[in-house]
Amino acid sequence: MSEFTLHGARIVVRAGALADAAALVHECAPARRPVVIADDNVAPLHASPIAAALGAELLTFPAGEASKTRQQWAALTDVLLERQLGRDTVLVAVGGGVCGDLVGFVAATYLRGVPVVQVPTSLVAMIDAAIGGKTGVDTRHGKNLVGAFHQPSLVLVDPLALRTLPAEHRRAGMAEAIKHGVIADEAYFHWIAAHGAALLARELSADVAHRLVLDSIAVKAGVVARDEREGGRRKILNFGHTIGHAVEHLSEYSLLHGEAIAIGMVAEAQLGELAGFTLPGLADDIRELCVALGLPVSIDRAFDAGTILALTRGDKKARDGAAEYALPMRLGEMNDADGRFAMAMDESFVRATIERCR
Ligand SMILES: NC(=O)c1ccc[n+]([C@@H]2O[C@H](COP(=O)([O-])OP(=O)(O)OC[C@H]3O[C@@H](n4cnc5c(N)ncnc54)[C@H](O)[C@@H]3O)[C@@H](O)[C@H]2O)c1
Ligand SMILES: [Zn+2]
Fold first, then answer.
1. Domain coordinates in residue numbering, the chain
2. Which of 86, 267, 325, 339 has its CA 20 to 30 A from that of 353?
């Protein structure tokens, strides 16, 4: 078992932990009435046993990003209001990042805020979405534009839940794990490279699943611990995400987020090499590992460079209309850009990089 504390959130990582979820929820949120919320894929697999053990009601919503909306936020909030649940409520979000972000936002706002327990069941949720306290929903203007910081009371991570996760989602989550290796943990990057087959195996072993999740959480929690609200260091987590988000958008979301990030990481490492910040060869190392894990690495020829540039300028991360990039120096170390951890780049470099990554 492994435990962290992050801005008041207790993070427990243990194979088989879901079986003890009820006891841990009671321990972290004593004398509270739990309500379990999950999407309709995860409900029968993992949430229903937790609700039964807690003697709690299980609320469900349709699986998929399309549920991460103000409408779904309102619908769940209305059910809680109809049940006349008070400030002694604790919401237990069991599922992927969609569930965690949505239920986290319901918890952040219900009666001006009730505690939430995050039980992430996808790889993205375990190593990324559930760690750090960001919650929110999408709007037609873009993803994650309405939300709140709301640290969970408890994050309960059972790496064995990954065994039921569809293969494409495990693969997509691997991109964020690779990112964590690149930005802060060289040994972890090499470990992933050495265990590719085991990481993709259908019957994921408990040891491999545990190390995969634990080391990745350690990186994310370590970064967030030093910068809760993205003032500086937290920006290194955006490696691969400037070009990645543009490509994700241009694919009309046919690429999973992690797949777009794989493409974005290779491109941004290449950009760093071109600009002289990044040790030559890093882009190739990242490309090789992504390919080995079945992740895409090339920018579709149909995606016009000018359109990609325009999208990067409109990104949430852009400052004064200029796209910002978090760039690696070498495996495990990011450029600190004089404490800003991200910087604008000459667009001619970005254009050349895009063409090189076709
Ligand atoms: N808050 C943050 O800091 C943060 C960070 C990264 C991503 N996110 C958000 O997370 C979301 C993506 O998360 P995701 O990839 O987990 O998507 P998701 O929640 O849609 O889950 C992916 C799919 O896997 C299914 N699933 C999840 N766990 C399962 C399991 N153990 N067994 C079987 N099926 C399972 C889900 O039902 C869904 O169909 C995005 O909305 C993104 O914006 C948030
Ligand atoms: Zn991401």
1. 2-164, 167-194+232-356
2. 339
Per-residue pLDDT tens over the stretch 26-77: 999 998 999 999 999 999 999 999 999 999 999 999 999 999 999 999 999 9
Partners of 91 in the β-ladder:
35, 116
Catalytic residue chosen out of the listed positions 257, 259, 268, 335: 257
Q: Give burial (CB, 10 Å; 0-12/13-18/19+) of 197.
A: exposed
Enter the tokens of residue 284. Answer: 């190739």
Task: Write down the architecture of domain 2-164 according to CATH.
Answer: 3-Layer(aba) Sandwich (3.40)
Q: Is the CB of 265 under 6 A from ligand 1?
A: no
Query: Is residue 316 among the annotated active site residues?
Result: no
pLDDT digits (tens, 9 = 90+) for 196-232: 999 999 999 999 999 999 999 999 999 999 987 777 8
Does CATH number 1.20.1090.10 belong to domain 167-194+232-356? yes
Instruction: Indicate if 167-194+232-356 has the same CATH topology as 2-164.
Output: no
Query: What are the strands, taking DSSP E only, across 22-166?
Result: 33-39, 57-61, 89-95, 116-120, 134-139, 142-149, 154-157
